Amino acid sequence: AFLVRTYYATVEFVLPAAMMQPMWESVKSTDENNDESTNFALSYHRANYEEGYDDYHDIYLQRWRSEDKPWKVICVNRITGKEREVPYGKEHLNLEGEYCHNPTEFKRVLGQGSPTQENGINGIQSRFLDPREPSNSEWSPSSVPGVKAQTWKANYEDGTCGIRKMDEDMQRLDPNLPFASYKNDGVKRAECSNVVDNPIHPTAPDKLIGPNQIVEKRRAKFVAVSHLTEDYLDTNGIVRNFEGELEDEDDLVSLLSSFA
Fold first, then answer.
1. What is the pTM of this model?
2. Residue 253: which pLDDT band, with cuts at 50, 70 and 90?
């Protein structure tokens, strides 16, 4: 003999959670208004390594000529010590074609950045991207929220190169700068450190490798059939169930009438 009954249950569909794969991002910089913009120089340097962005002495000639500072030339009177600033331009030269009147004055050059050039108004600026500058390390990849990336400064100092002196132990006015041997070590530094911490890479689709999660639920009707003991007082533990119901949604009692 068998015991047949119907019941409703919730069916759950379980799948592994999608794990987002890293998506390449360009390096961002934040201005004083907290507005983000792409830092193209740092994006390229951290993706490919550019030796010119890693040279502390890249404008040593301009520094020697004080062209890294805004134009400021002062003539000092040798007797009174009075100073007068000479504006930029040939129209401010004296009859002898000089800025200061010789021999009563001598010239003091504080800066020779050309105010007529867009890149020279405030002096010619170095392209060196210093990892010690906090603004250069404030950005880190964030496409995968579960992964906490370390700063570019920390990546720059990682590797077999170790921590190096940014100025290569050479002063700005060192006369040997044109012949410095460190200029030939750029490729080696790119290979032995993690200065390239944001290389360009393809973006792979998300992978279903996360923890299992319920993606859908539905209510369904089931039929359970249990095998009864010989005295009909209990079940013997053998049970079989399946999803479904009788045609036209008839009750199970209709089975008895069909065999009557």
1. 0.64
2. low
Tell me the C-alpha distance between 188 and 216, whole Å. 54
Rounded CA gap, 58 and 39, in Å?
20
pLDDT in tens, 136-186: 999 988 877 667 788 999 988 887 777 788 888 889 889 998 888 766 665
- What is the SS3 assignment for the chain? CEEEEEEEEEEEEEEEEEECCCCCCCCEEECCCCCEEECHHHHHHHHHCCHHHHCCCCCHHHHHCCCCCECEEEEEECCCCCEEEECCCHHHCCCCCCCCCCCCEEEEEEECECCCCCCCCCCCCCCCCCCCCHHHHCCCCCCCCCCCCCCHHHHHHCECCCCCCCCCCCCCCCCCHHHCHHHHCHHHHHHHECCCCCCCCCCCCCEEEEEEEEEEEEEEEEEEEEEECCCCCCEEEEEEEEECCCHHHCCCCHHHHHCC
pLDDT in tens, 89-118: 888 888 888 989 989 999 999 999 988 888
- How many angstroms separate the CA atoms of 61 and 253, rounded? 101
